[in-house]
Design brief:
P-loop_NTPase; alpha+beta; dipeptidyl-peptidase activity; ABC-2 type transport system ATP-binding protein; transmembrane helix; Jelly Rolls; 22 helices
């Protein structure tokens, strides 16, 4: 029976627990209320789907049916007119690609018209690549249709109040439509092009597209997507399944995804197509593509055709305020495209704003913090210039950079920055970083195979992700490297570098890249961006070569102090067409890399603000609970620095340990033992006996109900400094999978806050026995490798007490034998080891002492040989086991035991061992060894029973 004092203590504890639970419930309900208050509501939106017939073409009399859906906010009517948004999809998509964005715009009070562009999905017609007479005129007819709606606000008869939003293919349409039709009130083009000929035939030294290097990878995807689309309303029931370029603008930047083709229909080529291979592309587009793809070069006619579908030539006619959003992870339309559009529009006096974000054709929407920023800018722009609400957004330049991981959901976080004036890709300042290296020969492979992998559609950093498996091909590239940077540099814009080249052919196609190389030698090519150049008129020797300035694609990247810059000049790239004939060129890069910088101010987003509000609320809850728990613990267990004199020299003393859970379950009822210097103590017991609970209490992972634990005389409580003298492996290893084994050990040691010189990495790695695998990432480790590394981690500081839970789990027999020797060697110089294991044979061979626990209590403890005790049986080591069995079978009372595991184990049943040996010798059988035979397993089963089960460890 418990004493009154004990009962009172229980009542106080229960009262405190009730107060804690009640306080927690109130705070959680408050958090739920705040969260409910800030979450957006789904607005009511109604839709109207229809095929709209439009007349387009050069003469305006070519009829085509467009598959449309109009999204209307609740309450829109002739009495309550609303402004409109024309929402265009990306190449290969359909109106379904932008459904979620249309619903959100409609929820914000806009009438949103989406449609499937001609040549895609269920719409009729052929693909003309945003031709002013076709796709652009189609959009003009849709403006007419909107102006005729009684529920759409108009500025005049036939002039709807409208903004145009689109990504990639739809972004170019927004620009071209605003140039061609002055009824457009504002546009938000995203991740789109300026000059389509330069986009697909780039040349980074300033040459015309006819000298450009064909971007064959992306072009193949465009024509592959356009070649297998549905055949129009008559032959298709259903909508687009694949979306190579969607444009979810209101929920963030566009998030294109790869697809074999955008249509679900039969995919036949329409009448008039130039080649069946081009599907629904118009004949002139198809013919131009086939010419370029065959030769790798563009003629002037092809360039003129592509420029016909480019905003570059009509930017001065755009009067609609323009928000240009461009992706930093975009090898199709990099940041320079938006820069050219911005300069052309601003030159005409039109309000223009530029925003760069971390996504793009290769990076999707980017982190949520970044997509939220772009969403805010988009809505702000439309609300002011179309809806007529809010202050003018201004023309400041914003961009973003990946900043790390979110502490709440472990997703990537991007930090946004602002600068008052748009500086372009040249930046506001330049930083020169010298690079050096000898002139080097580089081979152009025949037919461009094998080719380097750097910029691959939809995979902007593939070479970095593959960790060197793919990348620059040996013999096909030259490297020029800087010294480590003395301080970090924030690059915002297009770097430049001078290269020289020589070739016996007089011409070379080269790909210039700028890598960020960390102190460990890992090289990263930012977003997989490369600068292709076609150099002509080259001398045969490098001494006669003149420098050519190469402008690399604009990037946003922080190059940390201690990192190096590496300029690579390669002859091949899988994303581009290269000369078929093999050749060997000589290249050199001298001087310096010029890095653009912009000194911007960090900017928050609404999502960031709410994230911090919620994070602060969660932190307040956690702090409150910690304070309450700390107060309760302090009442009953005050930490002190006194040393119990009886245990001052004892690594571990466990006294009357008890652990009882709230539901009444008793995991440990009375455990009492000591571990002395030089001992390897095995903690044994059946499953559920209380072994793991004892270790968890020992390591401070759970609190005991009663009893004390002393480590070198110090009473063990959470946070006790004496814990630093214990090394432990309890409940399995836990490592960061993206780090190597060695990096994990170093990170663990840094987290302990102890001096680096106190770590014994060499000894630990020798113990782990992982060899070169210690430099591989943990995610590639087997369970056994992780176990060995965890044991090495426990031994890093050569702690005076080592506590291991199942240390041989996952190890093979040779590794188990080595672990046995390691533990025996470790228990020297005053150190001690406590091992919990179910492998009784290993405990018997490894441990000096054992503690046997059953049902939460100790049933035996002491030296292993004492627990094993005297043996009723004898092990005979003889020269002829079969003959010996026959002799022993004839002796009265003597029997050979059947469980000898290949050895001769005999129960003498009182017969003197000398007499048994004499009989064997008389029979001519040599007897080499006679030893008592009793295993720890026999003693263990005798102590706990063969069918014993513990009380269930927790």
């Amino acid at each position: 029976m418990r004493s009154p004092l004990s009962a009172a203590w229980i009542r106080r504890a229960l009262s405190t627990r009730r107060r804690v639970v009640a306080a927690t419930a109130i705070v959680v309900l408050l958090a739920a209320a705040v969260t409910w208050a800030v979450l957006p509501r789904e607005p009511a939106v109604r839709t109207e789907a229809a095929f709209v017939n439009v007349a387009s073409g050069p003469t305006g009399d070519e009829s085509v049916d467009l598959d449309t859906t109009l999204y209307l906010p609740e309450g829109a009517s002739a009495a309550d007119k609303v402004p409109a948004v024309l929402l265009a999809h990306g190449f290969g998509g359909t109106k379904e690609s932008v459904r979620a964005d249309a619903e959100e715009f409609a929820g914000r009070g806009y009438a949103v018209l989406t449609w499937t562009a001609r040549g895609f999905g269920r719409s009729g017609g052929q693909i003309h690549l945003d031709h002013p007479d076709y796709e652009v005129r189609d959009a003009q007819r849709l403006l007419d249709w909107l102006a005729a709606r009684p529920d759409v606000r108009t500025d005049a008869d036939g002039d709807p109040r409208v903004g145009v939003v689109g990504g990639s293919y739809g972004g170019a349409l927004a620009l071209l439509l605003a140039a061609q039709d002055q009824r457009v009130d504002a546009i938000v083009p995203m991740i789109t092009w300026n000059d389509l000929s330069r986009s697909f035939l780039p040349e980074s030294s300033g040459k015309e597209p006819t000298e450009g290097v064909f971007k064959s990878g992306w072009a193949g995807l465009f024509f592959g997507g356009g070649g297998n689309v549905g055949s129009g309303p008559a032959g298709l029931s259903g909508t687009s399944a694949a979306q190579p370029e969607g444009a979810p603008v209101s929920a963030g930047p566009p998030s294109p995804g790869p697809g074999a083709g955008p249509g679900t229909g039969p995919g036949r080529a329409p009448a008039g197509a130039g080649d069946p291979a081009c599907g629904r592309f118009a004949a002139d587009i198809c013919a131009a593509y086939l010419r370029i793809a065959t030769t790798g070069r563009a003629d002037q006619a092809a360039v003129d055709l592509l420029r016909r579908s480019s905003p570059a030539g009509v930017l001065d006619r755009i009067k609609a305020p323009t928000l240009l959003v461009q992706g930093e992870a975009d090898t199709l339309f990099p940041l320079g495209e938006a820069d050219a559009n911005a300069r052309g529009i601003a030159a005409a006096g039109t309000p223009v704003r530029v925003a760069w974000f971390t996504g793009g054709h290769d990076g999707g929407e980017g982190p949520k913090t970044d997509s939220d920023r772009v969403k805010f800018l988009t809505v702000q722009w439309l609300d002011h210039y179309v809806k007529g609400e809010g202050e003018a957004p201004g023309d400041d330049f914003t961009w973003s950079r990946i900043a790390g991981f979110d502490a709440l959901d472990r997703g990537l976080v991007a930090t946004g920055y602002r600068y008052a004036d748009y500086p372009g890709v040249a930046g506001t300042a330049r930083r020169s970083v010298p690079v050096a290296g000898p002139a080097q020969p580089v081979a152009n492979p025949p037919a461009g195979n094998p080719a380097a992998i750097s910029s691959v559609p939809f995979a902007g950093e593939l070479s970095a992700l593959l960790g060197g498996v793919a990348g620059d091909i040996p013999g096909q590239h030259a490297r020029f490297e800087s010294e480590p940077l003395a301080e970090a540099v924030d690059v915002v814009g297009a770097p430049t570098v001078d290269v020289r080249a020589a070739s016996p052919t007089g011409e070379a196609v080269l790909f210039v890249k700028l890598y960020d190389v960390d102190p460990n030698g890992a090289a990263t090519l930012p977003n997989g961006l490369v600068a292709p150049v076609r150099l002509t008129g080259l001398p045969p020797t490098i001494d006669a070569a003149r420098p050519v300035t190469v402008t690399l694609p604009a990037i946003v990247r922080r190059i940390e102090a201690g990192h190096r810059l590496r300029v690579v000049v390669a002859t091949s790239d899988q994303a581009y067409a290269t000369p078929v004939e093999p050749a060997v060129h000589t290249v050199a890069a001298t001087g310096a890399v010029s890095l653009p910088t912009v000194a911007g101010d960090p900017i928050p987003t609404s999502a960031t603000v709410w994230r911090w509000v919620l994070a602060g609320l969660v932190a307040a809850i956690v702090v409150g609970l910690v304070v309450v728990v700390a107060v309760v613990r302090r009442r009953h267990r005050r930490q002190d620095s006194s040393v119990h004199p009886a245990y001052a020299g004892v690594p571990l003393a466990v006294r009357q340990l008890r652990k009882e859970y709230a539901d009444g379950f008793v995991a440990v009822s009375n455990v009492d033992f000591e571990v002395h210097p030089g001992q390897v103590v095995g903690l044994l017991g059946p499953n559920g006996a209380g072994k793991t609970t004892t270790l968890r209490v020992l390591m401070g992972l759970t609190q005991p109900t009663a009893g004390e634990i002393y480590v070198f005389g110090h009473r063990l409580v959470p946070g006790s400094p004496v814990l630093s003298r214990i090394g432990a492996l309890v409940e399995g290893p836990g490592f960061l999978p993206h780090l190597s084994g060695l990096e994990n050990l170093k990170a663990y040691w840094r987290a302990t806050g102890r001096p680096a010189e106190d770590a014994h990495f060499e000894e630990a790695l020798e113990i782990a026995g992982l060899g070169d695998s210690v430099h591989r990432r943990i995610k590639n480790y087997s369970h056994g490798m992780k176990q060995r590394l965890a044991i090495a981690q426990a031994m890093l500081g050569l702690p005076e007490l080592l506590v291991l839970d199942e240390p041989t789990d996952g190890l093979d027999p040779p590794q188990i034998a080595e672990m046995r020797r390691v533990l025996q060697r470790y228990a020297t110089d005053g150190r001690a080891v406590l091992v919990s294991s179910h492998l009784l044979a290993e405990v018997e061979q490894t441990c000096t002492h054992a503690v046997v626990v059953n049902k939460g209590r100790i049933v035996a403890s002491g030296p292993v040989e004492e627990i094993v005790g005297e043996s009723p049986s004898v092990l005979f080591d003889v020269t002829d086991p079969e003959a010996a069995r026959a002799v022993l079978a004839g002796l009265h009372g003597v029997r050979v035991l059947p469980d000898g595991e290949g050895q001769l184990v005999v129960d003498t049943n009182g017969t003197a061992r000398s007499e048994v040996v004499a009989e064997l010798v008389r029979a001519g059988i040599g007897v080499d060894r006679v030893v008592p035979r009793r295993r720890l397993e026999d003693a263990f089963l005798a102590l706990v029973g063969e069918n014993s089960r513990g009380s269930g460890d927790r």
